[in-house]
Amino acid sequence: METMTKEELIEKIQELETKIQELESRKSSGRKEQIISLLQEGRKTIDELSEKLGITNRNVSSQLSYLRKDGWKFGKDSKKRIFIEED
Q1: In sequence order, which residues have a C-beta less than 8 Å from that of residue 68 and are 6 or more positions away?
Q2: Residue 38: inside a domain
Q3: What mean pLDDT do residues 5-19 have?
Q4: Helix or strand (DSSP H, E) at 76
Q5: 55, 70, 79, 80: most buried by Cβ count inside 10 Å?
Q6: Residue 74: what are its φ and ψ, rounded to 5°?
Q7: 49 lies in some domain
Q8: Which residues form the domain of 49?
Q9: What is the number of domains present in the chain?
Q10: 51 within domain boundaries
């Protein structure tokens, strides 16, 4: 087994943290694309999106927030179904 110095360990940890952040970013981007695709098929509730994506309602809400920051506009009907608003 190779022995590493403290500095080498710190550098390795930083490299791994960067890779984790990149993977999380890709995962989030994929989720956002999936949500848009599902909403383009028709109106969905948070529960329906959550079930179809296999993620929590909270995570769906977070992804919708990120999409809003990216410029997407969503509405909600009287049955709490979410839809993409057209400009």
Answers
A1: 74
A2: no
A3: 92
A4: strand 74-76
A5: 55
A6: -125, 150
A7: yes
A8: 43-87
A9: 1
A10: yes
Tell me the two tokens of residue 33.
Answer: 């694309």
List phi, psi (to 5°) of 69: -65, -30
Residue 87 identity (one-letter amino acid)? D
Q: Confidence class of residue 84 from pLDDT cuts 50, 70 and 90?
A: very high
Torsion angle, alpha carbons of 81, 47, 28, 30, to 10: -70
CA pair distance 38, 20, nearest whole angstrom: 27
The reported pLDDT for the residue numbered 81 is 97
Q: pLDDT tens digit string along 21-64?
A: 777 766 667 899 999 999 999 999 999 999 999 999 999 999 99
- Max distance between CA atoms of the chain, in angstroms, equals 63
Q: Is the pLDDT of residue 18 over 90?
A: no
Q: Is 12 within the bounds of a domain?
A: no
Q: What single-letter amino acid sits at 37? A: S
